[in-house]
């Protein structure tokens, strides 16, 4: 697949069809993500494995999916990350993968879990 087209002046311009396919690929990924969350709750790592993405990419897509379901009768529900040692779960950003607990400083943190109902 060619990502650029050479014009008469020798300049490179990105092909519109390529950028359209890239947008469609993102939409398809988000649709697959949403369908997966409708089927069962999942963590970013589980979704990353299913969709062949990184956990950070999954979080980015989940943010977009949450906006998409906002205008419908569905809701994106998030179970917050939880410290396995002290049980702390009052994180400021639920769509984040914290590296350690702010209370006890433990690095043993369960990831957030997402689902669409």
TrEMBL record:
All residue ranges annotated as the PF0610-like winged HTH N-terminal domain in the record: 28-77
InterPro entries: PF0610-like (IPR038767), PF0610-like_wHTH_N (IPR049159), PF0610-like_Zn_ribbon_C (IPR057022), WH_DNA-bd_sf (IPR036390)
Domain PF0610-like rubredoxin-like zinc beta-ribbon C-terminal: 80-117
A Pfam family this chain is assigned to: Zn_ribbon_PF0610
PANTHER family (alphabetical): PTHR40663, TRANSCRIPTIONAL REGULATOR
This protein's name: Putative transcriptional regulator containing an HTH domain fused to a Zn-ribbon
Organism: Natrinema versiforme JCM 10478
Organism taxonomic ancestry: Archaea, Methanobacteriati, Methanobacteriota, Stenosarchaea group, Halobacteria
């Amino acid at each position: 697949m060619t990502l650029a087209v050479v014009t008469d002046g020798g300049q490179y311009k990105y092909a519109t069809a390529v950028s359209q396919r890239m947008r469609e690929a993102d939409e398809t990924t988000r649709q697959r993500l949403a369908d997966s969350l409708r089927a069962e709750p999942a963590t970013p790592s589980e979704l990353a494995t299913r969709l062949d993405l990184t956990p950070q990419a999954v979080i980015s897509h989940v943010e977009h999916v949450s906006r998409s379901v906002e205008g419908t009768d569905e809701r994106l529900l998030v179970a917050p990350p939880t410290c396995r040692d002290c049980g702390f779960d009052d994180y400021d950003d639920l769509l984040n993968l914290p590296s350690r607990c702010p209370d006890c400083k433990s690095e043993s943190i369960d990831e957030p879990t997402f689902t669409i109902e």
